[in-house]
């Protein structure tokens, strides 16, 4: 599964912030720890705010904090906000007419995997992942 770069970075930012979920995180600290360009980071933070995952506070003591509880932010929510989950629900070979009635060679294997993948993404949230394992990139 390959996520779009913005979705990957968004998840990394949220996971990084989840390590200290009660803290206000500055753009500077996120930049230093996750090595994302300033312009790209600010664009992502604006989007995360727009989607309601985080809130921003302006001023000298400002930064970003969670707008929702960690258990209310699933991986599926973040993926869906940035790129949608639809691309993971279609035919793995790209056939538009693939269905239970007209299956491709991978249909039933992919259907089972897809179902498990979507379930995993929907049930995995920021409170039940190993936030200490975030790596610098």
Look at the structure and give the mean pLDDT: 90
Can you name the CATH architecture?
Orthogonal Bundle
**Considering DSSP H and I runs of 4 or more, what fraction of the residues is helical?**
40-55%
What is the CA–CA distance across the termini?
Answer: 19 Å
* Strand percent estimate: 5-15%
Structural class of the helix and strand makeup?
mainly alpha
| Biggest pleated-sheet summary | 2 strands, antiparallel
User: What is the CATH topology?
Assistant: Arc Repressor Mutant, subunit A
* DSSP E strands, number: 2
CATH class value: Mainly Alpha
| Overall form | elongated
**H/E element sequence:** HHHEEHH
Count of helix runs: 5
- Oligomer state of the chains in this structure: single chain
Unreliably modeled segments: none
| Main sheet: strand order | 1-2
Radius of gyration: 17 Å
What is the CATH superfamily?
Winged helix-like DNA-binding domain superfamily/Winged helix DNA-binding domain
